[in-house]
Automatic annotation (TrEMBL):
Taxonomic source organism: Acetobacter musti
Ranges for domain Nitroreductase: 16-172
EC number: 1.1.1.298
UniProt keyword annotations, A-Z: Oxidoreductase
Protein name: Malonic semialdehyde reductase
Top-level taxon of the source organism: Bacteria
Length: 193
C-alpha cells in the first residue's frame, strides 16, 4: 500500500538540507532508534556493510576538524552529531548471522575487488537510508563529502579496519527561506527502454 502523501512530503518534498543548526542535543537513544530503522533497509544478499560512528561531543568533533575542508568546518562543528558513514571491507565475516547461503562468504573473501565494490555500494545505500530515517524521526540531515578520508580513517576507524565513505551532520536545522536548488526533470535524468 502506498504511504500517505504526508510521509512523502516529510521524507522528500518538504525536507530540506539545513545550513545552520539549532542548539538542541540529539539523545543517544535517538541514535539507537535511528540505527534500528536503518538496519531494516535492503542490501544485496543482506550483506549490511555500513558502519556508523556517531561523534556526539564537542571534544570528539574537534578531532574531526583537521580532516574537514574549509567550507565544512562550521557545518560540522555546530551540528549536534556528526556521523561517519563507513563500511567494513570484511563485511562477509558476518554472513553466518546475516545470510544462510552456503559458501557465500568465500565468494567475497577470495575476491577483494568484488568485496570492495559490494561494501562501498551497499554501505552508500545504507547511508541513504540513514538520511531518510533521520527525516522520518524529525531530524535534519546534511551529507558532507569534503574531508580527508585517510585522516578520518586514521583517527576514528583504524582499530576496526573500516573505511570512510561520507559524513552526515544530524540535528534540528535552522531553515531559511532560500529557494530549493533545482533538480533534473524526468526526461533529463531517466530513460524508458
Amino acid at each position: 500500500m502506498p504511504v500517505d502523501e504526508s510521509v512523502s512530503d516529510c521524507l522528500f518534498r518538504n525536507a530540506r538540507t539545513p545550513s545552520r543548526w539549532k542548539d538542541e542535543p540529539v539523545a543517544n537513544e535517538m541514535l539507537q532508534t535511528l540505527y534500528d530503522l536503518v538496519k531494516m533497509g535492503p542490501t544485496s544478499g543482506n550483506c549490511c556493510p555500513a558502519r556508523f560512528v556517531f561523534l556526539t561531543t564537542q571534544d570528539v568533533k574537534e578531532r574531526l576538524r583537521p580532516a574537514l575542508s574549509a567550507g565544512n568546518v562550521d557545518k560540522a562543528m555546530t551540528a549536534p552529531v556528526v556521523a561517519i558513514i563507513a563500511y567494513d571491507p570484511l563485511f562477509f565475516d558476518y554472513f553466518s548471522q546475516l545470510n544462510p547461503e552456503p559458501d557465500l562468504r568465500s565468494w567475497f573473501a577470495s575476491d577483494v575487488g568484488l568485496a570492495e565494490e559490494t561494501a562501498f555500494r551497499n554501505g552508500t545505500l545504507q547511508g541513504g537510508y540513514l538520511i531518510l530515517a533521520a527525516r522520518a524521526l524529525g531530524l535534519d540531515a546534511l551529507p558532507l563529502s569534503g574531508f580527508d578520508s585517510a585522516m578520518v580513517e586514521d583517527t576514528f576507524l583504524a582499530a576496526d579496519g573500516w573505511r570512510a565513505n561520507f559524513l552526515l551532520c544530524l540535528g534540528h536545522g535552522v531553515h531559511d527561506e532560500t529557494p530549493r536548488a533545482g533538480r533534473l526533470s524526468f526526461d533529463e535524468a531517466c530513460r524508458l527502454l
